[in-house]
Amino acid sequence: MAKRRNHRRSDDDTPKLTREQTRAQLGFLLTFLAPHKWRISFALLALVLSSAASLLFPKAIELLIDAVLNESTAKYSVSLIFGGLLAVLFVQSVTRYFTSMSLATIIENTLASLRTELFERIIRLPMSFFAERRVGELSSRLSSDLSLVQETFTFSVLELLRQMVFFLGSVVLIASTSIQLTVMILLVLPVIVAIALVFAKFIRKYSTKTQDALAEAATIVEESLQAIAGVKSFVNERYEATRYHSAIMNTVGLALSGARIRSAFVSFILMVLFGGIAGVLWYGGSLVRSGAMTMGGLTSFIIYTTFVGGALGSFAELFGQIQRTLGASVRIREILESEPELLDKTNNAGEGAPVRRLQSVEFQNIHFAYPGRKDVPALQNVSFSIESGKRVAFVGESGAGKSTTAALIQGFYAPESGQMLFDGEAASSLSLREIRESVGIVPQDIVLFGGTIAENIRYGKLNASDDEVWEAARLANAAEFIEQFPEKLQTLVGERGVKLSGGQRQRVAIARAILKNPPMLILDEATSSLDSQTEHLIQEAMERLMTGRTTIIIAHRLSTIRRCDTIFVFSKGKIVESGTHESLLADQTSFYAKLCALQFGEA
Fold it and tell me: N or C end: fewer C-beta atoms under 10 angstroms in the chain?
């Protein structure tokens, strides 16, 4: 796992980089463009030439004005100069279009590859990685951070290069036109730029605060709509509306504060711009009267001066944008450099390659604590053995370690000490693919993908035929309700399966597990909130699913595990008892007997 770097953070939560880190991050991003280096080099050269051609425009204006005012002494005719001006504009426009399109094509394709690589790396990272991060944060890496990279490379970097050509070329050309005017401009410009930088800092600060406040308001909307049943149940519509109104008004206040600063900045720029033009005209007019400068020369000088001012004014924002992008790339780089799970022991083992079907599991003195809670052990000295084809149950109070044990069996985490065995072999000698393809799970909280019923069932076996999908649905007692939908298997289930009832989602999950056909099965029971008829259908489907498989039932309703071969009783991360339902109940002082008494008065 790559070590997390301690970067200083700016107001917008983007890592603030040192000079060395900036170079490193720039090199990291450029590696993705390396395959297109020659095409990019030619495109950038064309961009420089196109920008340089733009510098000819004020010179052509100078010649045109002087030719109009003094046609008899002009070197070139007005028609020739005007034709040359149009030719320069045409060449510049065409060159800029093809340059921009070429670079956009390269960058879009590169960013698409980077998005794909980043997503693939994220989903291949271990569960310990996801335990320490929020889903929204990871989604932001794929959306916001990469969008920032995209915007920077498609606009900011190109604009920075263009403005540098404008700045350097214009300074040389205005100096060659009039040293006196150049000195006057260069004395005033640094002061203007310094004031502009102060304004830009405050504008960026309030812009960030406004975005954060807007995001907070959006969070209120998302939470309220996701829990709309609860909002209505508690009659808290007015409360949520008031909460949202307060958040929006906070956003408005920050936005108006930022608007005041931006308005002052625009007023300052307009005053400086038109005041500068007036000053140049005043001083330049005296030079024109004395014959030291032509009217065309004064006009081109003013245009070149606006080029210099515009370039200086844009440098701060463009450099800031690039700096934010490099900061955002730190988080992208951390993910790409994180060590993914190795599903196969050898790199040449393909995903479609056949794997062994493991049928038994054994824990020997397992100790485990979650990565974010090392001081709170989840499992302590847990030992048990589940033979092939046996049906066992994990029972105990909430947080006793039942689901944690199931997570370890699936290879989501590795124990800190002790040993796990599958079919008598150490888990460390087996591949994660062998373990996970041997274990199927029907979880308590069924989360379906937002596609069709067929796609959700077929997730258990991606190459399954329609007949196989229908057979799995029939065995899961799902075919009946699927047949009632007009679109049958092509019915969309909605986000997280919201268009289906709890019992329907449960049966789709069972059908998915049937299609996977694993030799080992984990059932996280979830029938307590269902009506009797639906519960009967699901229990019947589960019985078909469990037949001939090694089955682990994480029991919430103890009445469903009477026929298990062994019941393991968990408490505070330990197995405190084990045995059959009858043998455990025989001891009236047993922990299991007390659990039964609490649930249904059996003692």
Answer: C
